[in-house]
Amino acid sequence: MPLSKLRDQIDAVDQQIIDLLAERLRLVGEVGEVKAKHGLPIYVPEREAAMLAKRREEASSKGVPANLIEDILRRTMRESYASENDTGFKTVNPKMKRIVIIGGNGLLGQRFVEMFKLSGYEVDILGRANWDKAEEICSHAGLVIVGSPIDVTVSVIEQLSYLPEDCILADITSVKDGPLQAMLKVHKGPVVGLHPMFGPDISSFAKQVVVYCNGRGEEKYQWLIEQMKIWGAHLYNVDSTVHDESMTLIQALRHFTSFVYGSHLKEVNADLKQLLDLSSPIYRLELAMVGRLFAQDPALYADIILSQKNNLVMIKRYHQHFAEAIELLENADREQFIKRFESVTEWMGDYSSLFLDESRSLLQQAHDNRHYEDK
């Protein structure tokens, strides 16, 4: 009986929390309307940091763990950023002519179509079904974005010689140097390479990184950079060759490693359910990332991994290091293993501590989401 009464009180408090969250989301909706009217970005790092610091302090003063209130608020803010999309965004360049997105029916292309329309622009989608009208459609364009699959991006770009000279030509491919050089060659007007560092399943552009590589006529496409900032994205400028070198490690090598690990699990016919039941949070996350790869379009990942010759060079170097590490095991060389481990720790420096702290919150969330069924 005492436990039942306490649970009733907890249920009542939970209802109050739900009511307060509903009120917060309502206020966020009003904030979104004000931001849309005045052209303010939905994500302001300084405001978020200051607010979290103040809430942490207030929580601690009342005996509430600071990390708890930060976890709650960060999850709430993620929902808030997504809801602000509903109010639309300021049109940074109201004089912009029509925007054409080649591949706008693809999953990522659809997100850009949606965001441009929410920002008040007129958008046309160009794909295989209406490619015979490409020149006519592009003749009215002020911005053309190529969102075709990686393996055909350059060939699509090479066909765009008829664009108006004042039209901005951009792409959203994960490889940058090849497409950028192709755009500069085929088009005399403004050119910029874009790489959204996220998939199409995001709920909001807030805090998402969009890389941009300058091509030609930076002042002509500066409004585009500002428009994406208003969506909440973080814009990161980098040279196209540097970008591609980084993507070899960030994308190609990691995706290939996940591909090989998934293939290995299949070959040994691993019991995935048992692995999950026995796994620690960190292995569960690792397995989830491997599973995430195989839940998506294989052609996309084949194109990413095969997109650059340097990818194969890097993967072979990784294979060599893997073989050297296996040799340590074959020789049971514990001392050399520890020595090599410590050398990597030293090379990482303060980043190893940073990664440890960041991973703790991810692992705790993975643990919180775990659900056991009574047998």
TrEMBL record:
It comes from the Bacteria. Pathway: Metabolic intermediate biosynthesis; prephenate biosynthesis; prephenate from chorismate: step 1/1; Amino-acid biosynthesis; L-tyrosine biosynthesis; (4-hydroxyphenyl)pyruvate from prephenate (NAD(+) route): step 1/1. Its main location: cytoplasm. The keyword Amino-acid biosynthesis applies. The keyword Amino-acid biosynthesis applies. Residues 1-88 form the Chorismate mutase domain. One of its GO terms (cellular component) is cytoplasm. NCBIfam families: CM_T (TIGR01799), PRK11199.1 (NF008400). This is T-protein. The lineage of its organism: Bacteria, Pseudomonadati, Pseudomonadota, Gammaproteobacteria, Alteromonadales.
